[in-house]
Methylmalonyl-CoA epimerase, mitochondrial (Plakobranchus ocellatus), 174 residues
Amino acid sequence: MISTLRTTLQRPMHVLSRISNLRETKSFHCSGTLLKESKVWSLGKINHIALVTPNLDKSTALYRDVLGGKVSNKQPLPEHGVTTVFVELGDTKIELLHPLGEKSPIQSFLDKNKSGGMHHICIEVDDIYKAMEDLKDKNIRLLNQEAKIGAHGKPVVFLHPKDCDGVLVELEQA
């Protein structure tokens, strides 16, 4: 008993946290071996759909003046290399993206798509760190190995489009 307790206490805190926070555990057999599948995170709602635009002012005017949408002010995000404007659509949003700076990750997208277009979808998750760990274990490539703070002030991570049916997926902490 004391030996088991000593071993448990010597485990790193993130391992103990992962073990104690399992919500649902399923067991099944595969080739005679008992396997356990655990669900430690879950998807939420679509937070936003991001569109790259060559002219942020023109796109903002379209959604605000022509379509009557509620739009945010421009928000430069130098750490992401973009300027954003959000269009409110009830419980979801459209994110208008425009390159910021010479090393903007969306400039190559705009170079290939002169008129702009859909760039990514953002889905909320209840635990981004557990999601990242689980997805890595399932061989889903993350475009950044550490979560970054996104436009809403919450941690975000992008998943490689080749692992997500050709779609760039952003996960955001709910």
User: Anything to note?
Assistant: Residues 2-39 form one domain.
